[in-house]
Amino acid sequence: MSFSTRIEVRVSDLDPQLHVTGAAYHQFADHSRFACVQAAGISVDELIADGFGPVNLETTIKFHRELRGGDTVDVSCAWLWGSGKTYRVEQILTRADGEVAATVTNVSGLLDLRARRLVNDPAREWAARATKPELLGFPGAP
Question: How many separate domains does the chain show?
Fold first, then answer.
């Protein structure tokens, strides 16, 4: 199951040429991932209270078409799990006219806040907290 969030470009997202700034693309992607986690039924407050915090280790943005003030953009989230300490989230930012504006790929992990180390199996920790694990792309989820 895929997840998507619609975001309206604000004036504060623009550079002097009235294009969306690079920082805003990061924020759009962050906002959509957080909304996806919430929609999956995970309380980030409870996750942190349990001693875990999500961390971004790498972010890659590829720009395809411009976004401008007043545009809306749909930001999808596809979670890709492996067997290691990290996982990826691939996001597509699509304009209202159907054109892909950008793709964002994050390599992330789940930090044990006490040990200050990445947990060995982040998928297990996320899946244990999700009421809708299919939104986080877990195998076997509806």
Answer: 1
